[in-house]
Amino acid sequence: MSSPKQPKRRQFFKIASAGTVATASGGLSMMLMPEAALAAEVLGAGALKTLTKMARDIFPHDRFEDTLYINAVSGYGEQAKADEKLKKLLLDGVAKLDAEANKKFKKPYAEVEKEADRVSILKGMDKAESEFFAKMRGDLVVSLYNQPAVWAKLGYEGPSADKGGYINRGFNDQTWMDRA
Amino acid sequence: MASKKFDLKDEVVVIIGSGAGGGTLGNELAQKGIDVVILEAGKRHEMNDFQNDEWPMFSQISWLDKRTTSGSWRVAKDFPGLPSWIVKAVGGSTVHWAGASLRFQEHEFKTETVYGTVAGANLLDWPITLKDLEPYYALAEDKMGTTGTNGIPRLPGNNNYKVLAAGAKKVGYKQFHTGNMSINSQPRDGRASCQQIGFCFQGCKSGAKWSTLYAEIPKGEKTGHLEVRPDAQALKIEHDSSGKVTGVLYGDSNGNRYLQKARVVCVAGNSIESPRLLLNSASTMFPNGLANSSGQVGRNYMRHMTASVYAIFENPVHMFRGTTMAGIVQDESRHDPSRGFVGGYEMETLSLGVPFMAAFLEPGGGRVAPGWGRDFASAMDAYDNMAGMWLVGEDMPQATNGVTLHKTEKDQFGLPVPNVNFSDHKNDVAMRNHGFKQAKALYESIGAKRVIFTPPYPSTHNLGTNRMSEKAKDGVVNKHGQTHDIKNLFVSDGSQFTTGAAENPTLTIVALAIRQAEYIANAMSRKEL
Lengths: 180, 529
Hints:
The complex is a heterodimer of chains A (about 180) and B (about 525). Chain A has about 180 residues and is mainly alpha-helical. Chain A has helices at about 20-25, 35-45, 45-60, 65-80, 85-105, 115-125, 130-145, 150-155, 175-180. In chain A, α2 packs across α4 and α5 (about 85-105) packs across α6. In chain B, the strands form 3 sheets. In chain B, strands 1, 2, 5, 6, 7, 8 and 16 form a 7-stranded mixed sheet that branches. In chain B, strands 4-10-11-12-9-15 form a 6-stranded antiparallel sheet, covered by helices on one side. Chain B is α/β, with parallel strands linked by helices and about 525 residues long. In chain B, a hairpin with a 5-residue loop joins β6 and β7.
């Protein structure tokens, strides 16, 4: 909210010719998404993979498919292309995550198997008031949860005016509270 | 809409701001045949421009001009550049308000007398009583079509209300219902009835909710006596050598500046911009700002004791379906110091969509009490089984809580930005903690599995920074909102509130505007203005 920019509405599963970038991104489903392709090009496929893993660890929803998280961080591609400072913040952050993971678990961050182990690294960053962590958490609040596909998963039905509101669509359909 | 256009040289009544205060005052004066120009800083977005989508509407209508914050309030840490959540558009914050329209209680007009000395609080009795305002409350309720008044049926309760009501009943509360809402429960005044769309905060797509944008301003424009000038941000109020105000300098987004001549100036820019404008209008004659001989301009800023409580149940609620503020419990709004604080608070249902819920449930961008990890995500996962309420109560006016001009930061017009300094009074903290406890008990009485306390959002109720007082030394305006120092300068928004009361402020702002219009019209006809 402190920088209330509306992220671009994501293009879901739009098949695009990602060309060599898709090859570089190593067979992830992100090759299907043009924004992800750009992010892989600008930040590197490895960094994008790490950011995606981090996104899931920050807001872990087991019923969300990976594309929702890829989508949430892919906006950084276009931004980082025009903003060297942001690019450095993200890449340094990823490097720091990997360094910590290598030190503690002998593997890069995205390869660490246990969520609790990865989260222990994130907690350390949060506690140290890492700018990278704060940026990721603050941006994800919007970029993850502002996706209509996420709304549907969480049972939020979104816009209703074009459907005549909820007056005939269940605004008062629950009765369990009368028996509670 | 071809409304009258006035010349910059026409000496009209200039109103700054088109919200609950300014928009109402403008129409009321126009109906009496008085020529009015409303200067509105924001753009004019009509009903068709509204979207049922939280972030795009936030970007479209919110007041996002640069502001700074200080003090120990949590908003300064969570949202340091966004002390308030108000609207910059024609209609002002009546575009995004929830519609709750409650009269103040009798004792809330005389808190200094009733509450006695409260250390650190700058309490003062209003120079008017409930009895003085009652006829104007009645006019306001009729104008706004407030449910539960004038024979207008209350709205049906949605699921979020049904949860609130079931819990209220279980814990023994007596005063709960779907509220006094300025949302049509049946067609009225040329506007449709509520379709339970939700998205009340994003602009009402059916027009069922009263807003000056479509319920007052077009009526005023029809008279030929009102012009609303959007993209016109007031920068400075000018005065002559006798100390009377003579016009308003304003700027548009293309960098042009204009001076609109004025016979009377009424400031209604909400409680941050209104005092800022008076302070930015300082001159050789008024070195501390206009109407500021008392030193009270910008002081005593109030924002209501607020907090939210969300509860997760085994069963679905779908709280987003239907009106955002769908019901109220009023039992705690009384003054009862045995609870450990003076004044009272209301419990009103609230719902946020997933986008805003994610941003507000545990805000802080990772710096304060960061919401993240399984704890946060599991609450979001239960979104469809969540009910919510907002706590809103009287906060204590404090001399050092207020709006000042920033020493170095400037806005797009080169003027000092406002800094909003606020710290909770210990009475505010005690009231909030009581509210949390009561809300938790209410929800748990009907089986809540998890109850989440959410800290205050950026202020939607901004009050008190040009307060009304009997004596000129205690405040900025008299009982008609006329400044003590300059007789043709008025304040017409919530900044004139002497104290904040527990109730949502809009109805009182509208009632005061109707009353002020009558006063100004009479004074003009007597050539006193």
